[in-house]
Hints:
The protein is mostly helical. It is about 75% helix and about 0% strand.
Amino acid sequence: MRGARKGIPVLFGLLPFALVAGITSQGAGLSLLEATTMSAVVYAGASQIVALALWAHPPPLLAVTLAAFVVNLRLALMGPVLSPWLDRLRGWKLWFSLFMMTDQSWALSLAEMNAGKRDAGFLLGTGFSMWMMWVAGTAAGFLLGAQIRPPPGHPLFFAALAAFVAMLAGMWRGRVDVLPWLVAACVSSATAWVLPGTFWYIVVGALAGSITGAVRDERRAA
């Protein structure tokens, strides 16, 4: 419950993101049931929007699956950071908590863990409240999209990127983060230029930034 309460401010930032997912689903030709089921079962905002951007009739399942997989690989880097919490969970508690983990709930949980808190239920509480908002927002966005039908490039579609930028601001720890963030940004930009139209820049940039941060921490500890 404390996680759900702490996550309330994030819900207001998540709502435009969910509306975009719903509008994009409607534009891709999905039904209301299909759009809400996708959000409830997949529950992965960035990869859902990437998948919907590639959607066609019939859908290119291999390309969509690969794109979603590449985008979600960042979670494989994020999850181990919460291992002091997650290692104490077993069975359905562990897997359900991992299913509910998002960028926003992870960032809030990391702040809690760094503050010395020990309750892994915080991650589940924040993630579950965001899940409810995500599904409801997708449905609302679908109905809204049927009415306004925004063209590609509409400012509304900036909401997804804005959510990630806002999350970064809360994770900034000062000059210590400059080097890994700079490396991640440069490597991502270079990869996007070398491999245009793909999504590998997300994974490559994340790995480059993570490795840089790990090497920096090892040298400081030595």
